[in-house]
Design a protein that fits this description.
This protein is an alpha+beta fold and about 350 residues long. The protein has 8 helices and 14 strands. A hairpin with a 7-residue loop joins strand 8 and strand 9. Helix 6 runs antiparallel to helix 8 and helix 7 packs across helix 8. The longest helix is centred in the last third of the chain and has 25 residues. It is globular, with a radius of gyration of 20 Å. It starts with about 30 loop residues before the first strand and ends in a 15-residue tail after the last strand.
Length: about 350
């Protein structure tokens, strides 16, 4: 048993964990581990927004153009494709890319093939919307958790290693306890989102500045290996409850501090859906996310459904679940939207929360 906080990120605590040193979790979990030389990672969400079946072919071609750029020098170490329909009824196809070196990401972004395409006036004239949400948390500002130590997802793929079994999980508050910064910092939010350029509306290039300590979570599940009773339970009972909670955050999350939520299904390289999905949400604060997780009826239902699921299967799961959680400083965030509707991503509800 070991701590979710890597040895080189530990420091004398001024804030206590929610559990005692002899706490034993009820089931195993693991974290991704990066070498000490990795001080910061980059998570990039590159999206194409369209409306109606007639635009989907053009949107797919644009996503493939973005993905082709990943093969350039300094491209990401890992990427995924995903799709979701947002609250405005628009299709959003997204390439999610990860770098373990912010300098490599900066060089990649500055490459003429990438930069000129993004800045071209054609992006405002081809009938599609585009967004680029880049977050670059320092090692102290994020955590990961997986229910298996193999086939890591997301940022875990580029971190290069995996921990032993973790102590800080299986209790309320464990998410916060796994973030190294929590040893000394309450991670309270300050400031507000702001428009740095443009106006949140179609036909605009918009840049949004995030405030201190916005919280972001990508929380996923893969059911490709499930069979029999487990597959029936997941698809028939657990997934519908999860979808209801994700739709609540998408449609009504602003009033509880959730700026944006996307419930996304993975796609393969040809655009076909895979048996993997994840929720991606941005929150005013980690505390707001924790309150939803601990007490809101929609998440209580998700948690209850999951516990019934694992108990019915005697904790012997083929379902793979994971998450990555970041608490982001203002200088770790960059959000840009081209020709997207005003409810897109971090533009959503500006001025309401």
């Amino acid at each position: 048993m070991e701590s979710a906080i890597a040895e080189h990120l530990k420091c004398p605590r001024t804030r206590h964990r929610r559990v005692e040193d002899d706490y034993a979790p009820p089931y195993p979990a693991w974290s991704a581990r990066a070498p000490g030389a990795v001080r910061q990672v980059v998570m990039g969400y590159f999206g194409v927004q369209s409306r109606g079946a007639g635009m989907q072919g053009r949107a797919c071609a644009a996503l493939m153009k973005i993905a082709a750029g990943f093969a350039l020098p300094d491209g990401p170490g890992h990427h995924d494709f995903a799709h979701h329909v947002d609250a405005a009824g628009c299709d959003n196809m997204v390439a999610i890319a990860y770098w373990s070196d912010p300098a490599a990401h900066a060089r990649w972004c500055a490459a003429p093939e990438v930069d000129a395409w993004w800045r071209s006036d054609e992006r405002l004239a081809d009938g599609l919307g585009y967004f680029r949400e880049i977050v670059a948390p320092r090692a102290e500002h994020f955590e990961t958790m997986f229910n298996t130590p193999d086939r890591l997802e997301g940022v875990g793929v580029v971190m290069g290693g995996v921990s032993g079994e973790l102590q800080e999980h299986g209790y309320w508050g464990s998410m916060r306890d796994r973030i190294p910064l929590s040893q000394t910092d309450a991670m309270a939010p300050s400031g507000t989102r702001a428009v740095n350029a443009g106006a949140p509306a179609p036909g605009q290039r918009v840049r949004i500045a995030g405030h201190e300590n916005i919280a972001m979570i990508r929380s996923g599940q893969e059911w490709a290996d499930t069979t029999g009773q487990e597959r029936t339970l997941y698809l028939g009972e657990m997934e519908p409850v999860l979808r209801e909670g994700m739709d609540f955050l998408r449609d009504q999350g602003l009033r509880i501090g959730c700026y944006s939520n996307r419930y996304m299904q993975h796609l393969d390289a040809k655009g076909a859906p895979l048996e993997k999905s994840f929720g991606l949400s941005f929150w005013h604060s980690l505390a707001d996310m924790e309150r939803w997780a601990e007490s809101h009826p929609t998440h209580v239902a998700i948690f209850g459904s999951f516990m019934r699921y694992v108990q019915a299967l005697n904790f012997q799961l083929q379902l793979r679940v994971y998450h990555e959680v970041s608490v982001l400083k203002a200088d770790e965030q960059s959000y840009e939207y081209i020709n997207c509707h005003a409810g897109s991503g971090l533009m959503n509800g500006l001025g309401e929360v």
